[in-house]
Amino acid sequence: MTARKRRGGHRHPEFGAFGDLLDATPAATLDLHGNTAAEAERRVKNFVVTHARISRGRVIHIITGRGRGSGGPPVLPGAVRRALASEISRFVEEYDRDLDEAGFLVRLR
Fold this sequence. Notes:
The chain is an alpha+beta fold. The chain has a single domain (24-108), classed as Ribosomal Protein S8, Chain: A, domain 1, CATH 3.30.1370.110. It is 29% helix and 23% strand. It has 3 helices and 6 strands; from the N terminus they run ββαβαβαββ. Helix 2 packs across helix 3. The chain starts with a strand and ends with a strand.
């Protein structure tokens, strides 16, 4: 597997090459089911900033679901990616989709 680059020039390995992200027990979980894209972005930003202070270096889990209830293409995964690439990216060491493709695992700096 090859590593993917995310915005900001930081590299993060794919899950198969970096098992400790998958094996980590999340310090906290944020469930975004039922949120609009705007609500999700705001909540993700607040969640990451809060946990960057209290859970430094740990993994957090952000649940988006698979988008079956959105009435169109899934909107929450894109909202989470936008939030993680925003001004809060300085608190994010790495991230990728979880095993179920229904959320994200995020390692904080």
